[in-house]
Specification:
The complex is a heterodimer.
Chain A: H1 3-17, H2 22-36, H3 43-54, H4 61-74, H5 78-89, H6 96-108, H7 114-131, H8 136-147, H9 157-166, H10 170-199, H11 210-219, H12 221-235, H13 241-259, H14 268-298, H15 301-311, H16 315-333, H17 336-353, H18 358-371, H19 380-389, H20 393-416, H21 418-427
Helix pairs in contact in A: 1-2, 2-14, 3-14, 4-13, 4-14, 5-6, 5-11, 6-7, 6-8, 6-10, 7-8, 7-19, 8-19, 8-20, 9-17, 10-18, 10-20, 10-21, 12-13, 14-17, 15-17, 16-17, 16-18, 17-18, 18-20, 20-21
Chain B: H1 2-35, H2 43-64, H3 73-76, H4 80-111, H5 124-128, H6 130-155
Helix pairs in contact in B: 1-2, 2-6, 4-6
Classes of the chains: A mainly alpha, B mainly alpha.
Chain lengths: 430, 156
């Protein structure tokens, strides 16, 4: 390892931990590398690499899905999903908390990010759960834990980023993530049923007659149909993921402006500028990640590292185990998209050399990194839910531990049984 | 201070406008393919260009209020004095990166002036220019924020 490369890695890790924005830490480390190795002539390529990192058609899907999700949640579509979740799940032991998880599952088909779930559902369900006797930290933990279904079930932004850095089919990954996402939901519901019995939460009267289910289901039909249409049109070969994302914006607009008339045109500029800002913050990391990948390419790191992992000869199960442990630890400290950009290509190459199906491995990685959203010290979903509950971070961290364990159990199942993820894409011919 | 607000407004407009054109364009591409059996050969290239503008504008504006994604749980545990020093050093390092991209961007743009994009035959330089321009705006926002922080410290 050359001095310049060692400095590059050291500067990147140090500035990252010293709270330099992830994107700039990647770029600054690249600048240090170029200066120390004296490659002044390469500087213009730095700018070009930043450009090429963003100049990808698949990445267009990120702002599009964000926009569709924002239009839906600003258009008060959330209440329709909540009403349907209430009719379907309100009678299960745990009552309102089960409804919260159910609503998170439904809303996951609209949003591709965990923060979208918490923004839309946290303010509704955390106070509601507290009113029904749940301690505030537990209420926050439940919403935080269920929010990771959002970036798992399609549309899913981490899957788009993963697909763009590894060339694994985004449509196939979308299909493969559906059942694992539902599994996370069921696992959380089971845990809540057990916890609420121990806490002595009183059973709640709820109207789950067939007529109510049918009525609320009809009301929620259009938002619930969106992920189905996205998946069907991609898997059926009618649209690329990016085209599906653009069409989902049109779909959301027709729902909110024309059919439900729940959003006025004057709300659009604010939504657009919010989504523009957030997309910029997300995709600039992908762009700066490509300068990082450029330096790693100079030093041949990706192929050397994945060759090293392959040479340990761990077999599929060993690779799966190592990758999961590495990702879980990484997920505690950095956000999913950064982890995917840094380690996605290396681990995906090692996994496919070991004979693991790329779709299966990709979904395991996404699920694993999403669990990182609720693990301390850096758990973005945890922070967001705590901010709504206002009960102190350490109490929420204590309350979320059983949820982390249950989610990891679901992750182990998905890792060990390829059929959970591969069943749906195989049906569709992937 | 007026000029800086105007710059922010302009960039927010660019990012929102490119988003709306993108959404309309991507949807229209699908409609055209199925209704008129015609897909413009240049549309994907145009969408990528719009995406780059949207991202650069959004990323630059986000510098002003320091909204970029970062890992701050270690620094948060430090005493306020040490934290302030680290934040200042990080800002300086960020500025170095921004300036490097802008200065190198000049060469990158002139190198690529004779290159043309495949479909639209636009000069590549126009497209790449979004990056140094965006980073220049980001540097301006960063400098303004650094100055505001210094003034706030002096008052306190």
């Amino acid at each position: 390892m050359s001095l310049a490369f060692g400095l590059f890695l050291g500067v990147f890790v140090f500035t990252l931990l010293m709270s330099m924005p992830v994107a700039w830490a990647m770029g600054f480390a690249t600048v240090v590398y170029l200066v120390v190795s004296g490659q002044w002539a390469m500087f213009p390529v730095l700018t070009e690499k930043l450009f090429q990192g963003m100049d990808a058609f698949v990445l267009v899907a990120i702002p599009m899905f964000l926009l569709a999700g924002e239009i839906f949640s600003e258009g008060k579509i959330t209440q329709r999903l909540v009403a349907f979740a209430d009719a379907l799940f309100g009678w299960i032991r745990g009552g309102i908390a089960q409804v919260a998880v159910g609503a998170c599952i439904f809303f996951a088909g609209i949003t591709g990010v965990a923060l979208g779930e918490i923004a839309a559902l946290g303010r509704i369900f955390i106070p509601a759960m507290v009113k029904e006797g749940y301690p505030a930290p537990l209420a926050a933990a439940i919403i935080a834990s269920a929010s990771i279904i959002g970036p798992t079930i399609p549309p899913s932004l981490p899957i788009i980023i993963y697909g763009s850095v590894t060339n694994v089919s985004i449509g196939g990954m979308f299909a493969a993530a559906v059942v694992p996402g539902l599994l996370i939901g069921v696992a959380n519901m089971l845990l809540i049923a057990w916890l609420s019995k121990r806490l002595g939460i009183k059973p709640r009267r709820s109207d789950h007659s067939l007529a109510t289910i049918a009525r609320t289901g009809w009301g929620a039909l259009l938002p619930l149909g969106m992920p189905v249409l996205i998946l069907a049109s991609i898997l059926g070969g009618l649209m690329t993921p990016t085209e599906a994302s653009g069409s989902s914006v049109a779909y959301a607009m027709v729902c909110a402006f024309v059919i439900y008339r729940s959003l006025s045109m004057s709300a659009l500029p604010a939504i657009l500028s919010r989504v523009g800002l957030f997309s910029g913050q997300l995709i600039i990391i992908v762009a700066c990640g490509s300068t990082l990948a450029w330096v790693l390419g100079f030093e041949n790191t990706t192929s050397r590292l994945s060759a090293a992992v392959v040479s340990w000869d761990l077999g599929p199960i060993g690779i799966m185990l190592v990758a999961n442990v590495v990702m879980l630890i990484l997920g505690m400290f950095i956000d999913p998209s950064t982890s995917i950009i840094l380690f996605g290509p290396i681990l995906a190459a090692a996994a496919s050399a070991a004979g693991i199906d790329p779709l299966h491995f990709g979904v395991v990685m996404i699920l694993n990194l999403n669990i990182g959203l609720i693990t301390p010290p850096l758990g973005v979903s945890l922070f967001a839910a705590e901010r709504i509950a206002g009960c102190g971070l350490s109490a929420v961290i204590r309350a979320v531990i059983p949820f982390i364990i249950v989610n990891i159990c679901a992750l182990v199942l998905v890792s060990c049984i390829p059929a959970i993820s591969l069943w749906l894409p195989r049906m569709a011919g992937f | 201070m007026k000029a800086i607000d105007r710059l922010e407004q302009l960039l927010s407009f660019i990012s929102g406008a490119s988003l709306s054109v993108l959404a309309a364009g991507v949807f229209l591409q699908v409609v055209m393919r199925y209704v008129f059996s015609y897909t413009p050969f240049w549309s994907e290239e145009a969408f990528r260009v719009l995406l780059v503008w949207c991202v650069m504008a959004g990323a630059a504006v986000s510098v002003r209020d320091n909204q970029h994604i970062r890992v701050d749980f270690i620094v948060e545990t430090l005493p306020p004095g040490a934290r302030r020093v680290i934040y200042s050093l990080i800002d300086v390092a960020t500025l170095v990166f921004f300036v490097a991209v802008v200065v190198a961007g000049y060469d990158a743009v002139t190198f690529n002036h004779s290159m043309r994009t495949v479909a639209l035959q636009w000069p590549m330089s126009y497209l790449i220019a979004a990056v140094p321009l965006g980073f220049a705006a980001a540097a301006v926002f960063l400098l303004v924020r650094m100055r505001a922080q210094r003034q706030a410290r002096r008052l306190a």
